[in-house]
Amino acid sequence: MTDDRDVLRDVWFGRIPTCFTLSQDEITEREAEPYYLLLPRVSYLMLVTDKAKKHFQKVMRQEDVGEMWFEYEGVPLKWHYPIGLLFDLHASNTALPWNIIVHFKNFPESELLHCLTKDAVEAHFMSCIKEADALKHKSQVINEMQKKDHKQLWMGLQNDKFDQFWAINRKLMEYPTEEGGFRYIPFRIYQPLNERPFIQKLFRPISSEGHPHNLGDLLKEMFPAAVTPEDMEKQYQVVIHGIEPMLETPVQWLSEHLSYPDNFLHISIIPLPRD
Amino acid sequence: METPSSGRDWRKHIVRQLQHRDRRQKLHFEDLIHSYNQLLMKSNIVQLWRDKHLAATPSLSPEPQNVVSLQSTHRKELIEMYQANGELVQEVFSLSKQHKHREEDLQVSHSRLVELEVRLSELEGERERLLERFEELEKANARVKEDYDNLQQLYRSQWEQLLKREVEGTELIQSMIDIKVQAARDLNYRNEKPKRVQEKNLKKDLAVVSRVPISMDTGVFPPVQKLLPEAARHQEIKIFKPFRSSRKRANTSFIGVDCSPTNFCSVARIPAKVRFSLEAHDGEVNAVKFSPNSKILATGGSDRKVKLWDIVGGMLQLVKILEGSNDGVTSIEFDPSGLHLLAGSYDNTARLWSLKDCELKHTLSGHSAKVTAAKFKFYCREAVTGSHDRTIKVWDLRKAACVSSIPLPSRCSDIVCSDYLIISGHFDEKVRLWDTRSGTKTDEIPLQGKVTSLDINSERTQLLSCSRDDLLKVVDLRMNETRQELRAEGFKCGADWTKAIFSPDGSYAVVGSSDGVLYIWDTLTGKLETSLVGQHKSSINAVSWSLSGEYVVSVDRSRLASLWTDC
Question: Element (H or E) spanning A154, and its range?
Fold first, then answer.
């Protein structure tokens, strides 16, 4: 369906306007102007911030430049989360553009992972895909693929090539027709302030009776609080890719169309702001 | 559980939501951020320039104007540099093209070089091969040459051997011939033995008979006749025995000449006319002689033949031709038995034929010029030949070898033999007498002309000589004095070999002259008895009177032989 295709394209080409500001702590030779960027939702911070890094390094001395890390409202941003997820989780209801503070020193060892090269990002990305396929197809599809296909997935993501990426990715979105869907749906449910990083459990897209599950079923099972009864106020927002899909949306469809490039359905559950 | 409508609902919801999100988050900010980034970039560039110029020229006035001029100058510089860059690029391009061309040429010449090298090696190889071939051919040639030389030598040696063998062969043949000839001679000699014995006996008988005085009466005949038939029978018996073998040998129908003796007539009848004449030879007829038994006449001519004639019915009939002489016959003599014939010839030889089988018995060769006279000496034992080489040779007829040779001062024209004398006539107008016992000259009779012929009478007492001065002389041998000189008018001695003879009884002398006329003298009186003209047109060479006295035969130069009788 063309709608589905449009959905895929809109998901892929989603952007977030960001303003990178150098931290006040950093020693600069001159005043550094803020750097604005439209960050792709589906990518990762470390892949798309090279220009910002260069921009800020111009005003700094060489010896002061350490590993770059980002922070929003005091929260160090994990680079191994997709940018869209980070935004939805931390700043979905705030004013745009998204203001990120750039740090070059005082790397928070306890909270962030080091990311010295892009290979770390690639390794993380590929492992996520493999994990997703393990849930979906018992790793059959990903293992049948050649190394060049894996590389093509990564290059497609890195260079923002929708067709290149989806040429391979659609294989990962196939399922045997008799099954009616994947084996299990790869998803993660995130909360902004929580001990646990995310909720990930086995969840079948088709019920034992044969009818497909929807988002409501998933939430009921994983995060029942998110599903508000009719008479009560809505407490949580269930955001995927910056939108709130209806609870009737089948999870199989969601997994096929609203997954991130790493084939996971990253769901943010944000408490509704009380104002 | 999804109804299509509800399915579409949530889908639509999602689509709307996404669009809304994008509008909010992306679209509003897109252009703004883009412009902002461009400005940022420009300000960075300006910063850079400012930094550069501050470092280069600190004393710079406020920035904005300078910046603009700087910008323009920099832009110009940039344009110039771009132009220079372009030119350099062009040069690089052309140079690289040239380089390429050079490379190509180099490649081409390189490949050509390789080709030529290959060709060179090929040619070298070929040259090597050709040299080898040439050497081989030379070697082969040398070998062939060697073979050829060897063969040549071999051929030469073989040829020499062949020549040697041929010489040996001819020698062998010659020796064989000699042996055969010797054997033949031995055989002949053996065959002649009985003949000789027979002759001896005959001689004895004749001696016996001769002692008996012979008178002119016919009354004498019977005793003679008696005797003779005995002798004849004796002879005949003797004749037949030895010749049996020869008869077996010979194939001819006519074996021998009939040698039976006939009547011995001592009366010489003067011939009166020509009874018969014929062409006897193919050339000059040089000699004529009756055989002792009057039956056979022998003529010899320059046609090299000795012809034997029989007088039958007053005519000459050719009985036999004796061949063997290699040149004209000069003189003929029968031996006293009539069995042998001795003829001298121009070919420097004298030949002896046996008349029984008409075979050539001996050839007496040794003279170096023509033999003018050949006479028997002691019957068949010895012969005497005189020749133009100024020698007289005595031959032993058994061996057919020359016993002695008497050198003479002059050529001998004729010879007669008596018991112990050899009388020879010479061209130096002398007649010489030789004693055979002592072997020396006893006497010499001078004449006035070349002696052409000699004759001796049957008693051996008188000698008749004919000489070129047309004179005949009768000489007494016992007294050695000239008895008579016979001359005649019209008589001319025709040749150097004109023969004059006694009549059988010695009372007449007859000779032929150069004009073909026969002259007869009486020897007792010395007067010309008669001169006979016959059929002769040319000079008469020789005359012969049969022992019976009946016939006279004359032969002349134009091949004619005439038979004269008195009736």
Answer: helix A147-158
